[in-house]
Specification:
699 residues; alpha+beta; Glutaredoxin; Glycosyltransferase; five-stranded mixed sheet; four-stranded antiparallel sheet; 48% helix
Amino acid sequence: MAGENRLIHEKSPYLLQHARNPVDWYPWGDEAFEQAKALDRPIFLSIGYSTCHWCHVMARESFEDEEVAAYLNANYVAIKVDREERPDVDHVYMTVCQMLTGSGGWPLSIVMTPDKKPFWAGTYLPKGSKFGLPGFLDVLRVLAEAWSGERETLIEQAEKITEALRRSVDEAGDAEPAAPRVPEKSEAQSPARAPEGPIGSPEGLHDSLLELAFRRFRSAFDEEYGGFGGAPKFPSPHNLMFLLQYWKKTGDKRAFEMVDTTLGTAYAGGIYDHIGFGFFRYSTDSKWMVPHFEKMLYDNALMMMAFTDIAQATQKSSYREVVWEIASFLDREMKSPEGAFYTAIDAESEGEEGKYYLWTPEEIKKVLGKDAGAFTEAYGISEQGNFRGRSIPHLVGSPKDGDRQALLPPRAPAMEKSRKKLLASRQERVRPHTDDKVLTSLNGLAIAALARASRAFNDPDYLDMARASLDFILENNVKNGELHARYRKGHVAHKAYLDDYAFLIWALIEMHQTTLETSYLERAEEFARQMVDKFWDERGKGFFLTSTGAEELIVRPKETYDGAVPSGNSVATMDLLRLAHLLEAQDLEELAGSTLEAMAPQIRRNPMAHAHLLSALDYYAGGAQDIRITGREDDPTVQAMVNYVRRLYLPNAQIVLEGAVEDDGGRPRVVICQRLRCGAPIYSVDELQVALMTGRPVT
C-alpha cells in the first residue's frame, strides 16, 4: 500500500485522488520548481480533473504502477494540476499540446524544463505501447536519456516552442484554438469569407459576419440527427443560442430548424439521463445515443439556457418541462447543503464507465413488475443492449417520425410513476464520484440560467435556487474584498480569473433583470470595473485570463475561443454592453467595442468558434433593445407589461424600470428604444404586444 505524497495537504478533489499514488507528486508551486533545479531534472506535468475518465485510466495503468512511479521519481519532478482550479496553467500548456500535436485533451501530459518551458506534449498514454500509441514508460525513458545526453537540443526546442507561443499570443491575442476533442471540420465547409473593415460599422459588416457564421453552421449541420459534424458530438448550447438569435434577427427558418432539431434529438438520445435528468458531457456517436457519462455543471446550465430560449420562442410546454427537469437534477444531485453548486459528476462507478446509468430488462422488471414492458419498449431497454451488453435509456423512434413526441415531457402519469421507481432503485447503487468543489465561474452560469428561467416562466423556485447560490458565492468566495475562484470545505483558494468575474457579472445582470432590484445592478457594475482594472489588455485590447499581479507563467494567456463554454472575453464583452445600456455608461460600451474590433481577425477566420462573441456583436451593432417602463413597480399595469415582455423570446432586450410617473396624468407607460431611436409612449399591454410582435414602433 502506497504512502501519502504532498497532495494529501491539498483541497482539490483531483489532487486528493492522487495523494496515495506511489508517484512522488508535487502540487504546482515554487517547491516543485526549486526541487527540479536542485536535482537538475526535467519536470513531468500532468493536468486533469477529478471526473475525467481517461485521467482515471492513466492513473490506474501508470500512476498507481510501482515500476512507472519508480522511474518518474528517479528521473523527474512530477507535478499534478487540477485544470478546473488552474485554468491559466491548463490553457498555456494545452495550447502547447495543440501546437505540437494538432490536438489536445485530458489527461494533458507535458515534459518541460525547470523554468516551465515545454519540449514535449501529449495526452493519454498507456503504460506500454497499444492502440497505436507509444508506451508512457518508453516515452519517459527516451526523454530522460535525451535530457542527460542531448540537453542542448531539448532546451533549444523548449525555447523555440515558448517563443512561438508568445508570438501567437502577441499577434493574435489568443493562441487558438484551445478546444480539446471538439471537431472543427467546419473550416473546410465553406470558402466564403467576410469582408474586411470596422466590425461594427454602419456598412453592415457585422451582418456579413453573422451570415458567414450561419452558413458555416448550415454546412456542418447533421440533417438527420442534428448537431454539427460527426462523432464525437457536443451539444454546444451557446452555438444553438446564437442560431436562435440569428433566426430572431433575420427570420431565416433554417436557423430555427437547426436548433429545434438538435435540442429535440439530443434530448431523445442517450446523452440525456431519462431516469434522473440532466445531460451527459457529449455523445461518442453521431446519433446522440452513447454518451461519455460525465455530467458537468456548465453543460447543464447552458442547456437550461438553450431550452429556456426555445421554450420562449415556440411557447411549447415540452421544452419548458426540460428546463424543469434539468433544474430538478441540479437541485437533487449537484447542490450543496448551503445552496451552491458542485462542479461535476464522474462517468465511472466501481471502476466501470456508465455502470450507474445502465439497465437490463430483468432489472427493469424487478423494479416495475407488470409495468416493465411498457417502459422497456418506450426507452429501448433490450436483451442485447446498446452499451457493453446493457442498455442506455433513450426515446425510441427516429428523429423524423412522430413516435417520440408522445414521450417528450410532460410524461403520461404511468410512465412518470415508473421513472420515479427506477430512480429510487438506481439511487441504491454505488454512486459515481461528485467533484464537490464550488467554482465561482460555473456557479455564475448556473445562477444566470436559473434567473433567466425564473423570469421566462414566472417560477419563484428557480429564483430561490439562484439566490441561494449567489448569496453563497458573495459570502464565501469574496475574501478581504478579493473575488476567489474556488471554495471547498471551508477553504477558499486562487484569486479569481477572468471567467469568474465575467460569469458572475452575467449572473448579477440576470438577477437584476428578474427581480429589478438595483442592488444586483450595482454589484454587477462594481465587479465589472474591477474586471477592467485587473484583466484589461491596454495594448492588444480584450481581457487576459489572469489578473494583474498574478503568478507569471511563460505567457499571459488570453482566451477568445468559445469551446465547451463561452470564453471569458465573449461573456465579458456582452456583460459590458448590457451594463452600458442599463447604466448609460458610454465608457463600458467603448471597451466592449474595442474588444470586438481586436477579436475581428479570429471571428473572420473561424466564426463558428466565436458564437457567443457574435451574439455580442449583434447586440453592439444595433440589436440591443431597451424596454423602458415608467411607473410604480407595484402598479398592476406595470406588472402586466413586465410579465408580458418576459414571456417573449427577446434575446437582445432588457427592461429598464424608471420609477413613478410624474406626467401623462400618472399613467404608466413603455418606450421601446433601438438603434439610437425611441418609439412613441405605449400605455397598454395590447399596444405593447403590437410593437413587440410586429417590430413596428408605435407612432
